[in-house]
Write a structure and sequence with these properties.
Strand content: 15-25%
Distance between the termini: 24 Å
Protein name: DUF317 domain-containing protein
Organism: Streptomyces galilaeus
Number of domains: 1
Order of helices and strands: EEEE
Structural class: mainly beta
Shape: elongated
Length: 83
């Protein structure tokens, strides 16, 4: 049941308790344009969008019986994938 503290709808981009940021494995490497670019040490193609922009990594909580994310919403944080 929704309360003033816990609204019925949580935006899908809201990060939740238990979802953690990526491990601290970022490095700077020279790019073909001569600039330094940020990379993950274990980067794979899913870490960048079609324009080559590096996406932040964040874990996902399991889904409940209705297919909704679990964990209390962290209203001030946005999940980087936007789910």
């Amino acid at each position: 049941m929704p309360t003033p503290i816990s609204p019925a709808l949580v935006p899908f981009i809201t990060q939740r308790e238990g979802e953690d940021a990526a491990p601290d494995n970022l490095i700077l490497l020279p790019h073909t344009d001569g600039q330094l670019h940020l990379h993950y040490l274990d980067e794979d193609p899913r870490d960048r969008n079609l324009r080559g922009v590096l996406w932040a990594r964040c874990s996902f909580n399991p889904l409940d019986g209705q297919g909704q994310p679990t964990g209390r919403p962290q209203w001030k944080l946005m999940h980087p994938t936007g789910r």
